[in-house]
Design brief:
The complex is a heterotrimer of chains A (63), B (233) and C (237). Chain A is mainly α and 63 residues long. Chain A is built from two helices and no strands. Classes of the chains: A mainly alpha (63), B mainly alpha (233), C mainly alpha (237).
């Protein structure tokens, strides 16, 4: 797990200067918020889908 | 796994017998071979139409189109190979026979390999004519890749065809399961074929053929081990 | 235990994840080269790890099912594949968004991205297969076979795509990261892991309840222990 993450980071870090130039990327908060928003939305939607499909009879008393 | 120790019929004998049976059925109707030949020819033609009359592009990508045509045709061939058994409960009959279940895998997979290799052999001259390519390195290399590629499609394809032939919506299921799996095989076969057709200055052919060989080794053994579990009951 | 797992674990995971994300978004320094865009890491990497954990659980459950058939293992496999697919898809989307400002494109045919896309398609196939097979015992066996073959395929795909792309993509060496970044990443990862666990438990219960309902049907199979094979007469056709 650890090595995969470091490889990932390394890959991104190595790929960035090659294509974008060695300057630091400025701004880009829009991308950051988009990522977090999409992730939260997907997790919430999945939780809702779990709730909708909840087992009816024995394990869950809420009905 | 499930085989009892003193087997009444040897694995090899059973495989040969089953393979002969399948080939005989195939020979009597020739329905499957005819169907996939025309399907693959149509696919090769369609690539030319879809991509326009840019002969350079067609020539450059000929290896890829060739293998895509075989892949699409293989889905038909694989699906059909188990549909034959689903009529009149033939599969139950095979299972009841005192033969190793793994013989069914070997015979079906070898039968599919033969069928696809025959198809590929017929497609090579068509590809040469349609796309204006020529065999640069050697025909033996092309034959080797054709054989290895068809073996690589057949082993996992037979396992998945056995599964999907018993499921609902089998025509959707087989490609959905098979396509992501055979990507390494498709990739290396197409790459190696392109090298044969365009020349191989950096001597990469061997490594792609090796990758394909490794893929075969893994999936023929996995299929051999897991297939009895699929058809057991 | 039901109530505790249900709400306690959820509250814990949300709290940890929120802390991790706050650390990542507000507290950790921006990256030297990628600037603030690098903060996507605190959502992307935990998603990928959690997806890998789920897929690994799926593989273990599938292999175990081959040796000892049980509805619990089958339910574990089903739940982990679905949760892994959701997390993996989110991971891939965030990765693609991250790629836009850093690589200049949403999608590069990088081995890791490509292998993941293939993996997601393969697990979609796995879940579709489960939908299309009605006999619970056959479904369990067949989907285990598909899960095992799919997992074996992953390293092969990875190597072949890497070879295929070898002229374009340089494999990189690991890079040291700021300790503050590491902390934020770790906390976020644990938060995501807890959420994954919560999803897994919830989905597992569902799957198990479904199996029990199916098995309770008149002509279905006897219970868990008898599932090892030869339990019912065949209806293959």
């Amino acid at each position: 797990m650890m090595t995969l993450s470091t490889q990932l980071l390394g890959l991104l870090a190595a790929a960035a200067p090659g294509q974008v130039g060695s300057g630091r990327i400025v701004g880009g908060w829009g991308y950051v918020w988009a990522c977090y928003a999409i992730t939260v939305a997907m997790l919430v939607l999945y939780a809702v889908s779990l709730w909708v499909r909840r087992p009816k009879a024995p394990t869950d008393a809420k009905e | 796994m499930s085989a009892s120790r003193p087997r009444p019929i040897g694995l090899l004998t059973a495989t040969v017998a089953l393979l002969r049976k399948d080939l005989l059925i195939e020979w009597r109707t020739r329905a499957r071979l005819n169907a996939i030949i025309f399907f693959a020819l149509a696919t090769l033609l369609m690539f030319s139409f879809a991509l326009g009359p840019d002969t350079k592009l067609l020539e450059k990508n000929a290896g890829g189109y060739f293998w895509l045509a075989i892949l699409f045709a293989s889905v038909l061939a694989l699906g059909e190979s188990f549909r034959v058994e689903s009529e009149n409960a033939c599969m139950d009959g095979l299972r009841l026979a005192p033969a190793d279940a793994r013989a069914i895998f070997l015979s079906k997979a070898l039968g599919n390999t033969l069928l696809l290799t025959a198809l590929g052999t017929l497609l090579v001259p068509v590809m040469v004519a349609l796309y204006g390519v020529s065999i640069v390195t050697s025909g033996v290399d092309l034959g080797l890749i054709l054989l290895l590629g068809c073996l690589a499609l057949s082993a996992p394809g037979t396992v998945y065809a056995a599964i999907s032939s018993n499921a609902r919506a089998r025509d959707v299921l087989l490609p959905l399961l098979l396509f992501p799996l055979v990507i390494p095989a498709l990739l290396s076969a197409a790459k190696a074929t392109t090298l044969v057709l365009q020349g191989d200055p950096m001597n990469q052919f061997g490594s792609w053929a090796g990758l394909l060989g490794g893929f075969n080794l893994i999936y023929w053994s996995v299929g051999f081990l897991l297939f009895p579990r699929i058809i057991e009951d | 235990m039901g109530k505790f797992i249900k709400w306690g674990l959820l509250a814990l995971s949300l709290a940890v994840l929120a802390t991790g994300w706050w650390l990542g978004l507000a507290w950790a320094p921006p990256d030297r080269e990628m600037g603030d865009v690098q903060r996507i890491m605190y959502v992307h990497v935990p998603l990928q790890w959690a997806a890998l954990v789920a897929m690994f659980i799926n593989f273990v459950a599938a292999v175990s099912y081959m040796f000892k058939a049980s509805w619990k293992l089958d339910a574990t496999a089903e739940s982990s594949a679905e949760v892994g697919l959701v997390l993996g898809t989110a991971g891939m989307i965030t990765g693609a968004i991250w790629g836009r400002p850093t690589w200049g494109v949403y999608w590069s045919w990088d081995p890791r991205l490509t292998s993941q896309a293939i993996m997601l398609v393969a697990y979609t196939g796995y879940l579709v297969l489960r939908r299309f097979v009605e006999d619970p015992e056959k479904r369990a066996t067949w989907s285990s076979v598909v899960a095992i073959i799919g997992a074996i395929n992953l390293p092969i795909v990875w190597f072949s795509v890497r070879w295929w792309r070898s002229l374009h993509q340089v494999q990189s060496t690991p890079k040291t990261v700021d300790p503050e970044m590491t902390l934020a990443l770790r906390v976020s990862a644990f938060g995501m892991l807890f959420i994954t666990l919560w999803f897994l438990v919830a989905r597992y219960r569902q799957a198990l309840a479904e199996r029990q309902a199916e098995v309770a049907l008149p002509d279905a199979l006897p219970s868990d222990l008898a599932a090892a094979g030869g339990a019912n007469s065949s209806r293959v056709a």
